[in-house]
Amino acid sequence: MAPKKSVSEGPRKRLKSKAQREETPSIDKSFRSSDHSVRFLKEISHRTEVFGKIVDFHYFDNHHIHLKELFEAQGWVNFLSLRQTQYTTLVKHFYTHFKYQYNKITSYVNGKSISLSHSDLASVLQVPCSGTIQRYTTNSWMQFEGYNPLESIRQMCGNPSIEVPVRPKISELTLESRLIHHIITHNILPRSGSYEYISYLDAFIIWCILNKVKLDLAFYVGWHMDTCVKKKNGALPYGLHITTILNHFKVNVSGEKETRNAIPTDFYGETTMKQMKYEFNNNTWVKKDAHVVEEMDEEAQMAEADAQGNEEARQEDQEPPTAPSSSSRVNEDNFQLMFGRLDSLATSFENFSSMVTQTFSTYNENFASLAQSMEEINERLRNHGM
After folding, report:
1. CB 190 within 8 A of CB 238
2. Which terminus of the chain, N or C, has less C-beta within 10 A?
3. Per the record, which residues fall in region Disordered (predicted)?
4. To 5 degrees, how large is the angle CA 222–CA 225–CA 228?
5. 113: CB partners within 8 A, 6+ apart
6. Mean per-residue pLDDT, 108-135
7. Strands 278-281, 284-287: parallel, antiparallel or unpaired by DSSP?
8. What is the C-alpha radius of gyration for the chain, rounded to an integer number of angstroms?
9. How far apart are CA 100 and CA 94, in angstroms?
């Protein structure tokens, strides 16, 4: 009986070992396909991520700047005051798989498929969805009933004598409007590089916020994501809020080493006011009389802060030592475009080392996995006397 039992078990063992040899190797869940892996390395991995700012509404209320009332009317207070960790690698994986069609976002991160309709995105970000404006243009004045570009410029500059509807410089804005523009460039339509440029869309959004005309933030988030990811070397926005999306879809973030938490310059508050050269005297904010030498000293301080890792500090909106006149607006736009491209080029060089390190790290992991698989195969062969 014993030999028969041995004979009957023999084929079973051999069949089992064959099945084991045919098992599919473990698959890296970082990317949905090899094409996405290639896209990540060639198009996404080197890009700058925009973390976003955290608005300290309590600070501004205590110093007689009532931003909270304006953003409560939009329903954006929670969106602008959110504090949480950013997972820098996962943000880039999110944009590697990102698609935006028919107001719907789809992506893929760590084995989880992400699909967000317009209403879903609004719900996840906890912002209003219905009864709001959806307008997006950057090359001309916005066309909207009740919106008068000249009147809006007079309002945001606090100057009723302005006669020509020309986009103002940030130095011409009222303190309230200037802070709103800060928030637009870092949180609502995040960007990198120079923050002093006021686009047509920026001007329209400032007007809407000042006059409590409700905007559809979820629409702007989806459209701006799509615009940025399609732009060559464009900065990747909403890093802070992509964490909210990942948490909603229960993406596994444990073990992620590349993270970013808020640093002092990420908060809108006293530091922001000092960088804008305002001081609080006799219960009112007063603009300091800044000389060119003082501005250069502050720029040097910003460069030092950047060397210490506070990459956003050097990008705070400071008045340039020289500014073009209103008669040379086209040249100003060209210079802004040039500075933006130079900033992207600098960012590419800064991130090149990181990209190379990450690439070789991936190769090392793949070789280690291959070596382990070969060792397992050899072990199975030895077990069967081969």
Report:
1. yes
2. N
3. 1-30, 297-331
4. 150
5. 106, 107
6. 89
7. antiparallel
8. 27
9. 12
Measured between alpha carbons, how far is 67 from 111 in angstroms, rounded to an integer? 40
Tokens 């007063």: give the residue. 286
Other beta carbons within 10 angstroms of residue 197's beta carbon come to 21
Q: CA-CA distances (angstroms) from residue 312 to 181, 288, 343, 360?
A: 16, 23, 12, 28
Query: What residue type is 142 in one-letter code?
Result: M
Buried b (16+ CB within 10 A) or exposed e, 323-345: ebeeeeeeebeeebeeebeebbe
Q: Give the chain's length.
A: 386
Q: Which amino acid is at 270?
A: E
Provide the sign of the torsion angle of the four alpha carbons 193, 312, 353, 47, taken in this order.
Answer: negative
How far apart are the C-alpha atoms of 216 and 204, rounded to whole Å? 13
The residue behind tokens 């080029």 is 345
| Amino acid, single-letter form, for residue 166 | V
Buried b / exposed e over 254-282, threshold 16 CB at 10 Å, is eeeeeebebeebbbbbeebbebbbbeeee
pLDDT for 276: 82
Q: Identify residue 312 by its one-letter amino acid code.
A: E
**Helix intervals (H) in the chain:** 2-21, 34-39, 57-62, 67-74, 77-80, 88-96, 118-125, 149-157, 175-183, 200-210, 217-230, 239-248, 270-275, 292-307, 329-383
CB 317 within 8 A of CB 276: yes
CB-based burial label for 40 (10 Å; 0-12, 13-18, 19+): buried
Tokens 């064959």 appear where?
A: 18
Over residues 307-348, the pLDDT tens digits come to 333 333 333 333 333 333 444 444 444 444 454 444 444 444
Q: How many CB atoms lie within 10 A of CB 133?
A: 17
pLDDT digits (tens, 9 = 90+) for 64-119: 898 999 999 999 999 999 999 999 999 999 999 999 998 999 999 999 999 999 99
Domain positions in the chain: 28-292, 329-386
Q: Is the Cβ–Cβ distance between 81 and 107 less than 8 Å? A: no
